[in-house]
Amino acid sequence: MAWIYLGIAGLLEIVFAYGLKTAEGFTRLWPSVLTVLAAAASLYMLSLSMRTIPIGTGYAVWTGIGAAGTALVGIIVLGEPRTAPRVASLALILIGVIGLRVFSD
To answer: Which SS3 state, helix, strand or coil, does residue 26 take?
Structure first.
């Protein structure tokens, strides 16, 4: 169950990061509310997962999901550059996250 909590926490981290962009410095009410709720929920789910997952693994996976997912949202939704070095870098992050999961037990 801890890995499910961690996955949800990572997805909420993506929502949080995207929310920071759409809230425009917390000047827009509803995007700001969503951003704060996503951040709080992400941290809560992360804390649940760390009851059993080691801190180094849990935090690295959480930030990896958030970083890679946010970069993908930037590329797909916001039209940010989709260059070979960026895609390769994202692949390396995902390989690291998968490696941490596979070799953590």
So the answer is: coil
Q: Rounded to the nearest 5°, which phi and psi values hold at 69?
A: -65, -40
Average pLDDT (83-104) is 94
Q: Can you tell me the mean pLDDT for 80-98?
A: 96
**Residue 93 pLDDT greater than 90, yes or no:** yes
Predicted local distance difference test score (pLDDT) of residue 104: 82
Q: Please state, in angstroms and rounded to a whole number, the distance separating the CA atoms of residues 61 and 96.
A: 8
Q: Is 18 exposed, middle or buried (0-12, 13-18, 19+ CB in 10 A)?
A: buried
Residue 105 has pLDDT above 90, yes or no: no
CA–CA separation, 52 vs 55, rounded Å? 9
Domain range enclosing 12: 2-102
Domain total of the chain: 1
At a CB cut-off of 8 Å and minimum separation 6, what does 37 contact? Answer: none
Angle ∠(103,85,73) on CA atoms, nearest 5: 75
Task: Take residue 12 and report the two structure tokens written for it.
Answer: 């909420």
